[in-house]
Design brief:
three-stranded parallel sheet; 3 strands; single chain; 12% strand
């Protein structure tokens, strides 16, 4: 995704980027999603491209970002603590 945005940022205009497998069970340690967010914002697509992920964001992320979406929430035995 990072390389694709660098090569042709306008191809992401009006698109939704979905990054899966980075949540509490899928990704080791629930990694920070700063790199894809920075790529989208750096390409000037902050108002043009949405990002959905089960990964983690800092409090500074803004615009079209839906974060911490994870399928583990529906599992009754899953614990956040």
């Amino acid at each position: 995704m990072i390389a694709a945005i660098s090569e042709d940022p306008m191809s992401f205009k009006g698109k939704v980027v979905v990054i899966r497998g980075e949540g509490p069970k899928g990704g080791p340690g629930m990694p920070e999603m700063l790199t894809p967010t920075s790529a989208i914002m750096g390409a000037g697509l902050g108002k043009e491209c949405a990002l959905l992920t089960d990964g983690r964001f800092s409090g500074g992320s803004h615009r079209y970002v839906v974060r911490h979406i994870f399928p583990e929430a529906q599992v009754s035995s899953f614990s956040f603590f």
